[in-house]
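The record is passed on directly below:
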Amino acid sequence: MLDHDTERPARVPAFGHTDGAAAITLITDLPYGPKAAEVAREAVTVALHGAEADLLDDARLITSELATNAFASGRPPLVLCVDRWSQTAGGLEVEITITDGGCSDPAPSSPPAAEEEAESGRGLVIVEALADAWSLTTGTHGTRAWCRLRRGSHHSPDGTH
């Protein structure tokens, strides 16, 4: 859902979690161009207002990488969806999804190893390192990159992501 009058992402209640979690969903179109990552980072900042700094930093970096990949490898339209659940026990769960109009290349089964001196190619490696779960599904009619971040009561006991 977009609020086209103000060109700002709309925030709507999300459904699906039935464990007493308060939920918010933000959905917005991203520009198909070099500004996709910047707009996506700004939207995540809005969706995660008040979240812990480390979660916000990880979410912004992941979203930037996914938006860049969608622009570089996909076709328009680019759409960002951020689902945020504040758990009654104090935890926070975030799902970030970026879809695009598809591509002709098949999805890698795992992140490709980036060349040490390369200026690009590390996006999915970063996503894999920071996200608690993630997936990438590509096709000629649409591509979907998704990840989940958890903090607080659902975060792993050893402090890892």
Summary: The helical segments are 36-47, 53-73, 123-130. The first helix runs from residue 36 to 47. The domain at 2-154 is CATH 3.30.565.10 (Heat Shock Protein 90).
